[in-house]
Write a structure and sequence with these properties.
This protein is an alpha/beta fold. Helices cover 54% and strands 13% of the residues. Strand 1, helix 1 and strand 2 form a beta-alpha-beta unit.
Length: 375
């Protein structure tokens, strides 16, 4: 039988903790092929949360408690994930809040999705069957935060980023780079950030509908303005990091463009046809691009000296596509219009060829199997 650990991060939840643990463990009778355990990861509560859980632990071997000492939702969850997989030998984790806002009756649906082969299951209020039963202004905040997350993080097939009701496997957790995300602070931005990291680990993600209700006891720990600020900062940083390689590629391409342009103008003045002059200038740019991309843009996948001659030949062959695009665009332009239009069509040709080159360089010359870690 497979083991799932429900991780409950807590801070001052004495009014809810016993009820939520009882409701979670009651789901065992609805599940045949999973054994359900609960792990409370407490951020050194100042009330009786730990005392209540410690008493329950003595009476139930399906329940464990760890005191993570530090405040922070990310701290509590990451410590909980690691404890669940390393110490409790879980096959999967379900993460949920300890304040009774998440319906524990949904647990069998998360386990069913895991059985279907998905790596990460996200509970969603924003798909068919899901409900958000908060007050109107909090509904608006939730919708806005999730829309903003989709836009900034560029993950459009997921609709819910901010609720913490989710499940994932041991395998995808081992592939997820926690160094990519802020988990050691007190911000709730950990929720969308962790989903972003899992997505970058190429998880098979499924959303299932959930009903999210307002808490009836205790106080929420969320600071809305801080959350908005942290979400914006993380989203912008993630976008910059995601496209950092393309920015480097563009800068290298600019150097190549200068070399290419100088070659074009020089050889046109020497009497060559613009299409041939463009081709000669392009070869000079190809040499520059290979050296700079290898030592800077794709340095994590760097081609070492022994394989460089063969790769340079391959680089020339793949760059031939951009060369043909560029020269063909120039030829078409001067044929259809007039000789003096070659500069305009040269610019168009360079632009079209740039996208061809980036695709070929990323997937052929410096392919991912040359890089350690996630790109």
């Amino acid at each position: 039988m497979k083991k799932v650990v429900v991780v409950l991060p807590t801070f001052n939840e004495e009014e809810n903790i016993e009820d939520v643990i009882t409701l979670i463990l009651a789901q065992q009778k609805k599940v045949a092929n999973w054994e359900i355990f609960v792990l409370v990861t407490d951020s050194h509560s100042e009330d009786n949360t730990q005392k209540i859980v410690a008493k329950l632990v003595k009476a139930n071997h399906h329940l464990e408690l760890i005191d993570v000492q530090e405040r922070g939702i990310g701290v509590g969850l990451v410590h909980g994930y690691r404890h669940a997989f390393d110490k409790m030998k879980a096959d999967a984790v379900i993460q949920m809040d300890a304040d009774l806002q998440h319906d524990t009756k949904e647990i069998p649906n998360f386990l069913l999705a895991l059985d279907e082969g998905y790596d990460f299951i996200q509970g969603s209020r924003f798909i068919k069957g899901g409900k958000n039963e908060l007050e109107w202004y909090r509904k608006f905040f939730s919708w806005s935060a999730n829309w903003f997350s989709r836009l900034l993080l560029g993950i459009y097939r997921v609709h819910e980023f901010t609720t913490s009701y989710r499940a994932f496997t041991r395998e995808i957790f081992t592939k997820t780079n926690l160094n990519d995300i802020p988990w050691q602070g007190r911000s709730f931005v950990f929720q969308p950030a962790f989903l972003y990291a899992v997505h970058r680990a190429h998880a098979r993600i499924k959303e299932i509908p959930i009903v999210f209700v307002d808490r009836s006891r205790g106080l929420s720990k969320m600071q809305i303005l801080k959350y908005i600020k942290d979400l914006m900062i993380f989203g912008i940083k993630a976008r910059i990091k995601k496209y950092k390689r393309f920015v480097k590629f563009g800068m290298v391409g600019t150097v190549g463009f200068i070399i290419n342009t100088i070659g074009l103008e020089v050889f046109v003045k020497l009497g060559l046809h613009p299409s041939l002059a463009s081709a000669i200038g392009a070869e000079g740019a190809i040499i520059s691009n290979f050296l700079l991309n290898n030592h800077w843009t794709f340095k994590e996948r760097k081609i070492h000296r022994g394989g460089a001659p063969l790769k340079f030949l391959q680089f020339n062959l793949t760059s031939l596509g951009a060369l043909l695009i560029q020269s063909g665009t120039v030829f078409l332009g001067v044929t259809l219009l007039h000789f003096g239009a070659y500069r305009i069509f040269y610019l168009f040709g360079v632009g079209f060829g740039m996208f061809w080159n980036y695709f070929m360089y990323s997937n052929v010359i410096w392919s991912k199997n040359k890089e350690s870690g996630v790109s």
